[in-house]
Specification:
Number of strands: 0
Largest sheet: none
Number of helices: 15
Strand content: under 5%
Pfam families: MFS_1
Shape: globular
CATH superfamily of the largest domain: MFS general substrate transporter like domains
Keywords: Membrane, Transmembrane, Transmembrane helix
GO molecular function, one term: transmembrane transporter activity
CATH class of the largest domain: Mainly Alpha
């Protein structure tokens, strides 16, 4: 089978369609509790903590399932795996809307977690890497540009539905969207792969464009990359949950803290546009190092607790996060090549998702016991360690 003739014509449509599906997937999973957690708690009488734990449980399930999803993409292609994610997410949303007891609610998040493993960025990146090979970088960047609007579009949409029909019918509506929008996109936009019915062997040595003069083995390289991405996931998930609390404990007014937090989204988009326009000629290892430095500077500039500096800080931090999201897909492709790419993405996703589940909980304990300045210092140390690790990765 040869995709080369169709690829230049279909790439734009493929990325656009996958981008719409990603907006739906992220809105109804990772960003869902931000809108529905309080209404669910108020309606059911469950504590807000128990409601939010549903997302943490879902992330743990996603981490457990990610390697399997990656192997299946290598074996069967992304079409069937992403389509399965739409069905799992629809079932999860349906069960969540029906939940009368916490056990049922957590069972819903179990289905959602499996759907996250098979349907969020890692699976989409693996699908693009499989279809486009070394040419996937621009498509991965384009996908993150579209997917970055998930909170911008998803939050007001879900909040509006909740206001009109309540949280249960909002879950039912999201379930229907996965079946009516997400599933057809995955079945119709992603090409069939008739000749990929056997698992792609993973080469013993890196086969990407990167040279590795240090003689580091592929397994060691994968371990280093996993450590780097996991540390950054720990930092990003912590700030995404606790940023407003951190700023308020630093003495910054709530309204100003909200405005500072709003800097992250636009700066993410701006950084991804810059990566798409001028960063494509930069090796992903250098893009990663730049992103880590930007994140570290952003966190460090919060320490003086000066409101005007907070805007600069979150602008830099948001730019770093935007570039890191792209590097998460492009760096493994550059270091190892496209053979076994889905499997490696699944292996890398597991510790990252576990960090996203555990990080905010540990950070809450640090924040309660030692305060915001100490937490920011810890995050700066974690960023520094990940920067040191990045210099052990090949960059040519």
């Amino acid at each position: 089978m040869n995709h080369n003739k169709a690829r230049p014509i279909k790439t734009f449509k493929l990325v656009g369609a996958l981008g719409i599906a990603q907006i739906l997937a992220w809105s109804s999973t990772y960003y869902l509790p931000a809108v529905l957690a309080t209404p669910i708690a108020e309606d059911t009488g469950w504590s807000l903590t128990r409601v939010v734990i549903g997302l943490s449980w879902g992330l743990l399930i996603a981490g457990a399932c990610s390697p399997l999803a990656g192997r299946q993409i290598d074996r069967l292609g992304g079409r069937s795996v992403l389509a399965t994610s739409s069905v799992l997410l629809a079932l999860g949303m349906l069960l969540m809307g029906l939940a009368q007891h916490l056990v049922t609610y957590y069972l819903a998040w179990t289905l959602v977690g499996a759907g996250m493993a098979a349907g969020l960025y890692d699976a989409a990146f693996s699908t693009l890497g499989r279809l486009l090979g070394a040419n996937a970088r621009a498509s991965i960047t384009g996908l993150t540009l579209i997917g970055g609007f998930a909170s911008t579009l998803g939050w007001p949409l879900i909040a509006g539905m909740e206001h009109q029909v309540g949280w249960r019918f909002s879950c039912f509506a999201l379930a229907a969207m996965h079946l009516v929008i997400g599933l057809p996109i995955h079945l119709m936009a992603i090409p069939r792969e008739q000749d990929t019915l056997t698992e792609t062997p993973i080469p013993m040595h890196p086969t990407g464009a990167a040279s590795n003069p240090s003689g580091t083995s592929a397994s060691q390289l994968l371990l280093l990359l996993a450590a780097l991405l996991t540390l950054q996931s720990l930092v990003i998930s912590t700030l995404s949950v606790h940023l407003l609390d951190v700023l308020k404990l630093l003495g910054i007014a709530t309204a100003t803290a909200l405005a500072i937090g709003m800097m992250i989204g636009p700066s993410q988009v701006a950084a991804r546009v810059a990566e798409f326009a001028i960063g494509r000629n930069l090796h992903p290892t250098w893009s990663t190092r730049l992103a880590i430095v930007l994140c570290g500077l952003g966190i460090g500039l919060l320490l003086p607790a000066m409101p005007w500096l907070g805007f600069v800080a979150m602008g830099l931090y948001g730019a770093g996060v935007g570039i890191l999201t792209i590097a998460r897909g492009t760096l493994p492709l550059a270091l190892f090549g496209s053979a076994g790419y889905g499997t490696r993405m699944g292996q890398l996703a597991r510790p990252m998702l576990l960090a996203q589940a555990a990080g905010p909980v540990g950070a809450a304990l640090i924040l309660e016991q030692f305060g915001s300045t100490f937490l920011l210092a810890v995050l700066c140390v974690l960023v520094g360690i990940s920067l040191i690790i990045s210099f052990a990765l090949p960059a040519r």
